[in-house]
TrEMBL record:
This is LysM domain-containing protein. Gene3D superfamilies: 1.10.530.10, LysM domain. SUPFAM superfamilies: LysM domain, Lysozyme-like. It comes from the Bacteria. Residues 29-74, 91-135 form the LysM domain. CDD domains: LysM. Pfam families: LysM, SLT. InterPro entries: LysM, LysM_dom_sf, Lysozyme-like_dom_sf, Transglycosylase_SLT_dom_1. PANTHER family: LYSM DOMAIN-CONTAINING GPI-ANCHORED PROTEIN 2, MEMBRANE-BOUND LYTIC MUREIN TRANSGLYCOSYLASE D.
Length: 310
């Protein structure tokens, strides 16, 4: 729930931190999500698409609820060669027949002297086909990705708060998805909200996972931002801890109760994502329309007895 912030042949092997890959099904591998990963970057790394990863891993919504430590299935080529490691700022180049030190240096825009020094060679030392050389290169720093979500960029202090909350949740034992589901149903009945609607929103937001935190500092199973948590706290008459699954669910369900009491269903769902004031002022943004469509589709499936945990 993000309703207040919208700022929103030769072989050269680049130096990369190796991903964690384990054996999987034929044609599949397993990737352990690292801090700062996004589904689009993982898809690009393995030559696939976000939609394919969402389908392959049965991820909620558009796959924005992945978290560090989660293991995802990823497509793998029929054969693969372990990536070489080299020091930061270098690539490994396998010498081909006819190569020269000067030619390799020119190709990689480094000086001949630096190339010789990196390989402890002297001028005139021979190189031969098949010999690996360490080539000094300038590697551009990766663009920051931990401060963007759904096309929006968030202020550094918000991202810092999100990172702290994510770290806290990672250290705590969290309820299972089934337990979160029960909490949502119970809170919905208590506050007069259709349980299937609350379950659909939570599945779209987090897949019923309490440890999820977005760059916008939307926290937990219901993806509640702190200002909404304070709003819900005033309604229930006590301070809600969004890092606690029961309180997180309470905050999200209380917000839904107010939204559904103030607007028709599709507008209420849009208000959970974009903010009701923003929807009334600007209409639904394109991503909001997609969000509403997804939530209502999930609700319809739940109404028919679908259980995503089976």
């Amino acid at each position: 729930m993000r309703n207040v912030v919208r700022i929103l042949t030769g072989l050269a092997v680049p130096v990369l931190t190796a991903a964690v890959i384990t054996a999987g099904s034929p044609g599949l591998g397993a990737y352990k999500v690292k801090q700062g990963d996004t589904l689009s970057h993982i898809a690009g790394r393995y030559g696939t698409t976000v939609s394919n990863l969402v389908a392959l891993n049965k991820l909620p919504g558009n796959g924005n609820a992945i978290y560090a430590g989660e293991v995802l299935k990823v497509p793998m080529p029929a054969t693969s060669t372990p990536a070489r490691r080299s020091q930061l700022g270098r690539v490994t180049y396998i010498v081909k027949s006819g190569d020269t030190i000067s030619g390799i240096a020119k190709r990689y825009h480094c000086s001949r002297a630096n190339l010789l020094a990196a390989n402890k060679l002297k001028a005139g030392d021979p190189i031969y086909a098949g010999k690996p050389l360490q080539v000094p290169v300038k590697i551009r720093p990766k663009a920051r990705t931990d401060n963007t979500f759904a096309g929006r960029t968030y202020a550094d202090h918000i991202v810092a708060q999100a990172n702290r909350n994510r770290a806290i949740l990672k250290k705590r034992k969290q309820p299972t998805r089934s337990q979160v589901r029960s909490l949502i149903v119970s809170a919905s009945k208590r506050y007069g909200v259709d349980p299937q609607l609350a379950l659909a929103v939570a599945w779209q937001e987090s897949g019923w996972k309490q440890r999820v935190v977005s760059p916008a500092n939307a926290i937990g199973a219901m993806q509640v931002i702190p200002s909404t948590g304070r709003f819900a706290s005033r309604i229930v008459g006590r301070e809600l801890d969004l890092l606690n699954a029961r309180d997180n669910v309470t905050a999200g369900v209380v917000l839904l109760s107010r939204l559904t009491g103030a607007a028709r269903l599709d507008i209420a769902v849009a208000g959970y994502y974009q903010g009701l004031g923003g929807v009334k002022k600007n209409g639904m943004y394109a991503d909001t329309k997609a969000y509403v469509t997804n939530v209502l589709r999930i609700k319809a499936q739940l109404d028919r007895g679908w259980n995503p945990l089976r």
